[in-house]
Amino acid sequence: TIASVTSRNSHDAPKRGDLVTFSKGKGGKAKEVRVEKRLTAMKIAGKLNDISKENDTATFLAAKGGKFGICLSDVVNCKKDMLKDKEAVKDIQHDGKIVGICRSADLYLESTIVTGSAKKERPKLNLTVKGS
Fold first, then answer.
1. Cys-Cys with 58: which of 5, 39, 51, 96 at CB 3.0–4.6 Å?
2. Using CA atoms, how far apart are residues 107 and 85, in angstroms rounded to an integer?
3. Largest CA distance in the chain
4. Is the Cβ–Cβ distance between 120 and 95 less than 8 Å?
5. Residue 80's pLDDT is what?
6. Residue 10 CB-density burial (10 A; 0-12 exposed, 13-18 middle, 19+ buried)
7. Quick one: which of 118, 129, 100 has its CA closest to 42?
8. Sheet holding 67-71: strands in order across?
9. What tens digit of pLDDT does each residue of 42-61 get?
């Protein structure tokens, strides 16, 4: 984890929404993680509408108002085939741009995985960092 990469105490470790810089170490692992600015990203609840899997697009409707056209490639931690209209999602915005979207069911581990007739334990959540 990023927190384990930093040699500082947990108070100085990066938190969700912080702007960080880091260099790539051996094996592609982050090293020299530094918090540049605290709380620069905003988490916004909403729903996905007008999903077009063929065109790789959808509309994000923010719960507090606002409408954004998105690419389905902005959705992390699930395949676009799993997305449904009016599904609850949360997005992360930085500098007025959406940099990631995740289904609320995945984010809070409310969804289950069914293989055949057996339910499986949900794998550990692992969201990826998108570069700009």
1. 51
2. 18
3. 48
4. no
5. 80
6. exposed
7. 100
8. 67-71, 57-62, 42-52, 87-94, 97-103
9. 889 999 999 999 999 999 99
The amino acid at 101 = I
Going by pLDDT thresholds of 50, 70 and 90, the confidence category of residue 9 is: low
Helix, strand, or coil here: 12?
coil
- Reported as a single tens digit per residue, the pLDDT across 102-122 is 888 777 666 556 666 666 655
- CB–CB of 58/47 below 8 Å? no
Contact 90, 43 (CB under 8 A): yes
Across residues 6-25, what is the average pLDDT?
73
Distance CA 41, CA 11 (A): 19
Task: Report the alpha-carbon angle 92-69-20, nearest 5.
Answer: 25
What gap in Å lies between CA 12 and CA 89, rounded to an integer?
29
